[in-house]
Amino acid sequence: MFHIFQYQPLRLVTQNSLSSMCLKLMLSRPVAFAQIWKSWFSSHSLLGKKNIILMGPPGAGKTTVGRIVGQKLDCPVIDIDDDVLETTWNMSVSEKLQDVGYEEFLEEEGKALLKFSASGSVISLSGSNPMHAAGMQHVKKNGIVVYLDVPTTVIMSRLKSKQMERIVGVSPGISLKDILQFRKQFYKRWFDIRVLCGGDIAAEVVAEKVLDAVKRYQDSELETFISTRSSRSERSTEEDSHKLYFSDVVTQGLALDGGLFVPGRGLPKFTAEEWQGLIEAPYVERAQVILERCIHPADIPASKLAEIIETAYGENFSCSKIAPVRHLAGNQFLLELFHGPTASFKDFALQLVPHLFAYCIPRSCNYLILVATSGDTGSAVLDGFSRLHDTDKQRIALVNFFPEDGVSPIQKSQMIGYQKENAWSVGVKSDFDFCQTAIKQIFTNSDFTGFLTVEYGTALAAANSINWARLLPQIVYHASAYLDLVHQGIISFGSPIDICIPTGNFGNMLAALYAKTMGIPIRKCISASNENNVLTNFIRTGVYDLRGRKLISTFSPAVDILKPSNLERYLHLIANEDGQLVTQLFNQLENQDHFQLQKDLLGKLQQDLVAGWCSDEDCLAAIHSVYSTTGYILDTHTAVAKVVADRLQDRTCPIIISSTAHYSKFAPAILRALRIAEINQNPLSQLHLLSSYSALPPIHWGLLETLKKTGNGDHQVCAADMSALMSHIETLIQNHFM
């Protein structure tokens, strides 16, 4: 006999009651805001007075799993169907459904749930309980809701084999699949933890996954971040007050020692069954599942994360698939990453990161975000932060530094056109490497950052790919691309693929390598460079040598980079988190313009990476060739990757080429590749000419509209001088926040 009993709710500290504490603590200790919930989670036992509430569709195994979890925890187990509903009604659930009908049944079921109370128990909900809001709010008050997420096809197979008849909502003209899909919105609304349950996974395995997930939920102390330049001894003696969590690194951007933040225990691993459970899922759901495992709910609860992801990808992308995979020719496929509002892959992170940032920062401080761009980041970050709520815009501003003469005319028009009341673009009379290095130096200039905090109540933050939050959305689309190939029947799960990426700041490449560590079967990552081929030489030889190298302006400006910042994160990964070695290498690069990898590290690197480069001439020839044979126009960066892929792939497995930008952004080079003799210098005229080709993909909708509205516009221009940049920053803070 299962026990149901009344209890007095434990007096908990709620997030609302913590708000005043947060403000005070934030002023004294920047990391305190992220630690308040964590301190509560970690000070309690696995269950205590809380209930573990299992939720999911009919056939998810809630009852069986609940009994196993209860046995392992030696606590009461309650099945809502058997122990509450049927006891209350004195009839079976199926009889009640037949007696009162669908709508009345949901109401009666909800009323029974409202009268139910338990403590320290494992509770298995019915499949339809989550459809009654008041009932779920009641049980959730004293419980951790665990969603057993089973693929719809698996549920349908289970229900068919069991010949289950008591499915609420089944009626003529409404399929079981439709009902299951309809209910997902309710499950997603209520859960605290998601547990992925694949096809034939045993109930005992699911129970262990539930316990592991609850432990993670209650203890976020394990999910802290470290600097790529911190030593093991520094990390082992680190005090709790100095620990950094996701919400801290989102706002801090760059570590105080000049390193980049990485998760101390690495990224989560997905099993093959878990990945296979996402094959049928749409992009937004894949993103939520992956990011839930990378962001602790103490930093951003699952329900809020879902809301942010829906906002980022729900209506802002012109293609419903968000990141579609298109067959190009032979074994080559294109991952189209240009369907966002500003026509480049940067939209994937920068439609999401502003909302993560706004959620994580304390309300007591203003923030100025500094960005350096080689082209695409600028318009993407300006657009992303312009979509924040007005109240957030008042406390979050952004300045975008770009090489004044180092971006395409359309890219410059975009960055000027996307300026808003809280976001500005500043052209710098230098190259991208100067802009990026300058920002890093500003962040580590404690005198300047301290002055801004004391004088203006404003902290600095970063939105470049040096910010950890920028990388996570990029992991999603690499994983999603692989799952799409499986879904399309091109490969079976477990079969390897290669990936070729036009590589600039190494963030896109690093995200693919991270996807590999999380369980996506990527064989080789091919790094494609243009004539600024320092990275290609490094991957081939292990020698990173900038001596005598000057940046060359090419038709693929996003790859015109000699110092890719995210390379540091990758070297930290393959060096087994040896922060001292990473510090030594990058100090040598800074002081002597070169370093050389040890032989064992070079061997590890070359297991993951191969590299090549191509000239501008070869890039334009590839654009012309692909258009002539397929009717498809590549942008200049994708063309660089195509050339390198043709040279380096062995054609024994599919290769996905990252198409990182829409060709519209580089119209002069594209028109030249298509052998147009006379090219009008007006960007809008260039796009109209390209649209006359009726090529695939069509002209980018957002880009065309932006150019129609903005024309040339105005922007500030700054000398390549640190003092000048800091002066610009102070002036912008004065104008916006004071």
Model description:
The chain is α/β, with parallel strands linked by helices and 738 residues long. Among the domains are: 45-218, Rossmann fold (3-Layer(aba) Sandwich); 315-340 and 491-709, Rossmann fold (3-Layer(aba) Sandwich), CATH 3.40.50. Helices cover 48% and strands 13% of the residues. The protein contains 34 helices and 20 strands. The strands form 5 sheets. Strands 8-9-19-14-15-18 form a 6-stranded mixed beta sheet, with helices on both faces. Strands 2-3-1-4-5 form a 5-stranded parallel beta sheet, sandwiched between helices. It has a 5-stranded parallel beta sheet with strand order 13-10-11-12-20. β14, α24 and β15 form a beta-alpha-beta unit. α14 (283-294) packs across α15, α20 (409-417) crosses α33 and α29 crosses α30 (636-648). The chain is globular. This is THNS1 protein.
Which descriptors would you attach to this protein?
Rossmann fold; five-stranded parallel beta sheet; six-stranded mixed beta sheet; 738 residues; 48% helix; alpha/beta
CATH uppermost class of the domain at 315-340 and 491-709: Alpha Beta
Helix content: 40-55%
Task: Kindly provide the radius of gyration, computed on alpha-carbon positions and rounded to a whole number of angstroms.
Answer: 27 Å
CATH arch. level architecture of the domain at 315-340 and 491-709: 3-Layer(aba) Sandwich
Mean pLDDT comes to 89
Residue runs with pLDDT of under 50 for 5 or more positions = 1-44
Shape: globular
Query: In total, how many beta strands?
Result: 20
The end-to-end span amounts to: 66 Å
Strand content: 5-15%
Output the structural class: alpha/beta
| CATH fold title of the domain at 315-340 and 491-709 | Rossmann fold
How many DSSP H or I helices?
Answer: 34
Characterize the main sheet: 6 strands, mixed
With strands numbered from the N-terminus, the spatial order across the biggest sheet is 8-9-19-14-15-18
GO molecular function: pyridoxal phosphate binding
Cofactor: pyridoxal 5'-phosphate
Family: Belongs to the threonine synthase family.
Pfam family, one: Thr_synth_N
